[in-house]
Design brief:
279 residues, alpha/beta, D-Maltodextrin-Binding Protein, domain 2, binds glutamine
Length: 279
């Protein structure tokens, strides 16, 4: 009898707790959908900037800015529920992107930008969205440069403000480093012989060789520094960073990321030098 009463008491207690818990949650509504539903405090639109000379991530084709990064950031904006200011992604030279984020001229940057400690001190980064790294390219018929050790005393072309320039300064002090604003100037320098090699992001060199470069160059040596690309965000926008990260995770889960990836990286071999692919 005493035992039964106690059992009843316990049951009553459990029931009460369950009831209270249910009331508690119903107060906050049922929304358990992701970022788009006001979980984060976002502006309606943000200024987005990219680079215009980094195949196949961002480049101009028939007057239009296209590429992997461009499609990814549009999908992220849609998923996260914010607009792109003026419906237009601005472009600037790569070395202008971080200063622009620091001054607030741009709020979001997607530009194949490698996440580094130094940069993370002055801007915020999203989670990594692409695994990359830097490599060496030389003219296809050249056999005297087969790796980093052969760059000593040589002229190496790369791009201003990028991780490759820093890597060369630290690791090949004997090389002459020529840095250009635009990638077509970098590849031209190798092709016309004013530079012996290019050091730069591997996916960019590979894509260039397979398309516009038409096999004129080859990659030698190894991947000298693994790097992850991240989306850059003006420091102090925690909610925007979180919303972008949530959206990126959703796009990875629902197949959108793969779709965009396959479009730009699986058919990269060979045939798009005239920019014939349809949208
Ligand atoms: N990933 C390189 C960097 O961040 C180059 C990027 C680019 O040229 N767009 O330095």
């Amino acid at each position: 009898m005493v035992k039964d009463l106690r059992k009843l008491g316990i049951l009553f207690f459990v029931g009460l707790v369950t009831l209270l818990a249910a009331c508690g949650t119903s107060d906050e509504g049922d929304s358990d959908t992701a970022s788009a539903d006001g979980e984060y405090d976002l502006e309606d639109t943000y200024t987005v900037v990219s680079d215009n000379s980094f195949v196949p991530f961002e480049f101009v084709e028939d007057g239009e800015l296209v590429g992997f990064d461009i499609e990814l950031i549009k999908a992220i904006a849609e998923e996260a529920g914010f607009g792109i200011e003026n419906d237009e992604i601005e472009t600037t030279n790569f070395d202008g992107i971080i200063p622009g984020l620091q001054t607030g001229q741009f709020e979001i940057a997607i530009a194949g930008m490698s996440i580094t400690e130094e940069r993370a001190e002055v801007i915020d980064f999203s989670d990594p969205y692409y695994e990359s790294g830097i490599a060496i390219g030389v003219l296809a018929d050249r056999d005297d440069i087969n790796g980093l050790e052969d760059l000593d005393g040589k002229t190496v072309a790369t791009r201003l403000g990028t991780t490759s320039g820093n890597y060369l300064r630290e690791n090949v002090p004997g090389a002459e480093i020529n840095e250009y604003e635009q990638m077509d100037q970098v590849y031209l320098a190798v092709e016309n012989g004013s530079a012996d090699a290019v050091m730069y992001d591997l996916p960019n060199i590979e894509y260039y060789i397979a398309t516009e470069g038409n096999g004129s160059m080859k990659v030698v040596g190894e991947l000298y520094q693994a790097e992850d690309y991240g989306i850059g965000i003006t420091a102090g926008n925690e909610d925007l960073v979180a919303a972008i990260n949530d959206a990126l995770a959703t796009l990875r889960e629902n197949g959108t990321y793969d779709e965009i990836y396959n479009k730009w990286f699986s058919d990269a071999e060979g045939d798009s030098e005239e920019g014939t692919e349809e949208d």
